[in-house]
């Protein structure tokens, strides 16, 4: 079968493989971003979401310290280290992440009481950027899934507002419709600009969007200084 200007790989439903998993595998095999990630040495296609967001909003330039929340398998941290090679990065995820040069990795639940302090200790100073690609494991109920993910986004935003350096940025994945009005109001109070975006590499059928808050005003900031 020909599609998209080239040969499309078809996957036969094998014994023990569901139709859903077959569709997922076929989509992966035919995804140009998956192929590009393999060719360019990125651990996941998600790397291009951050690349495209940075191309549009230019938040990585000059950053010295970056926090990567929900980092597994490490594609966003790879982008940061390639874009600003001298930067220090501290990442956290429940899942194990293979080592990355210049990245301090914590296998830990970000919602754990000691997680923020451990992240800051690993980073060694106030971050210029807090990135969050966190999303709750889905249960198949759209409203529930959205609420659970928004709880993570709200926790990430509270963390960012607490620890960011003045002028810093917060970038987070949210569900379709963007961040809710309460969160947007909080971000607008603390950042000069707040925008929503869906980068080209985000699949059209995906409900994910991203909120990009820049120009942290520094009010009510706590945490170690640079």
Automatic annotation (TrEMBL):
Annotated Ribosomal RNA methyltransferase FtsJ domain residues: 42-216
Protein EC: 2.1.1.166
Keyword check for Acyltransferase: no
The protein's enzyme class: transferase
InterPro entries in the cross-refs: RNA_methyltr_RlmE, RNA_MeTrfase_FtsJ_dom, rRNA-MeTfrase_E, SAM-dependent_MTases_sf
Compartments (UniProt record): Cytoplasm
Enzymatic reactions: uridine(2552) in 23S rRNA + S-adenosyl-L-methionine = 2'-O-methyluridine(2552) in 23S rRNA + S-adenosyl-L-homocysteine + H(+)
Cleavable signal peptide: none
GO cellular component assignments: cytoplasm
Any one GO MF annotation of this record: rRNA (uridine-2'-O-)-methyltransferase activity
Major localisation: cytoplasm
Protein name as it appears in the record: Ribosomal RNA large subunit methyltransferase E
Native source species: Sphingomonas jeddahensis
Lineage, opening ranks: Bacteria, Pseudomonadati, Pseudomonadota, Alphaproteobacteria, Sphingomonadales
């Amino acid at each position: 079968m020909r599609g998209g200007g080239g040969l499309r790989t078809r996957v036969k439903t094998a014994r023990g493989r569901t139709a859903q998993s077959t569709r997922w595998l076929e989509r992966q095999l035919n995804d140009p971003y998956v192929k590009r990630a393999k060719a360019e040495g990125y651990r996941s296609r998600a790397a291009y979401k951050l690349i495209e967001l940075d191309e549009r909003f230019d938040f990585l330039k000059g950053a010295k310290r970056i926090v990567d929340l929900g980092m597994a398998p490490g594609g966003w941290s790879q982008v940061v280290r390639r874009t600003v090679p001298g930067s220090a990065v501290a990442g956290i995820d429940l899942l194990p992440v293979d080592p990355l040069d210049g990245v301090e990795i914590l296998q830990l639940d970000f919602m754990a009481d000691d997680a923020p302090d451990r992240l800051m200790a690993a980073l060694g100073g106030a971050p210029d950027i807090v990135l969050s690609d966190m999303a709750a494991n889905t249960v198949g109920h759209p409203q529930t899934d959205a609420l659970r993910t928004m709880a993570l986004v709200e926790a990430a935003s509270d963390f960012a507002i607490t620890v960011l350096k003045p002028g810093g940025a917060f970038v987070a994945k949210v569900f379709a419709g963007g961040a809710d009005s309460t969160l947007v109001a909080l971000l607008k109070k603390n950042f000069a600009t707040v925008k929503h975006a869906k980068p080209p590499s985000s699949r059209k059928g995906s409900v994910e969007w991203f909120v990009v808050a820049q120009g942290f005003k520094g009010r009510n900031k706590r945490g170690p200084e640079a």
